[in-house]
């Protein structure tokens, strides 16, 4: 987060690409509270997430086993009338076709209960 503070301290305004890269890094590092806080800060600053960003976040969260959090961002994709990318759909199908994850599918938005 020090890098992010340095960006804004120099008067630079982060865009959706900057936020996406930082958020995916935080997810990979397991810093999920920091990730959530950064996402909220982004929205408060007026930077609107795009489909590419939200799909990337969902894939990163699913890859880290954060299924409930991924469900929250799937809801955001739906709220914004975005579509799932093929790679996100493929990951969802692959993940929930495994026996150990079938019960987790219930934590996703209703639309995804076919998995």
Automatic annotation (TrEMBL):
<dbReference type="InterPro" id="IPR002885">
    <property type="entry name" value="PPR_rpt"/>
</dbReference>
<dbReference type="InterPro" id="IPR051240">
    <property type="entry name" value="Mito_RNA-Proc/Resp"/>
</dbReference>
<dbReference type="InterPro" id="IPR011990">
    <property type="entry name" value="TPR-like_helical_dom_sf"/>
</dbReference>
<protein>
    <recommendedName>
        <fullName>Pentatricopeptide repeat-containing protein</fullName>
    </recommendedName>
</protein>
<dbReference type="Pfam" id="PF13041">
    <property type="entry name" value="PPR_2"/>
</dbReference>
<keyword id="KW-0809">Transit peptide</keyword>
<feature type="repeat" description="PPR">
    <location>
        <begin position="15"/>
        <end position="49"/>
    </location>
</feature>
<keyword id="KW-0677">Repeat</keyword>
<dbReference type="GO" id="GO:0003729">
    <property type="term" value="F:mRNA binding"/>
</dbReference>
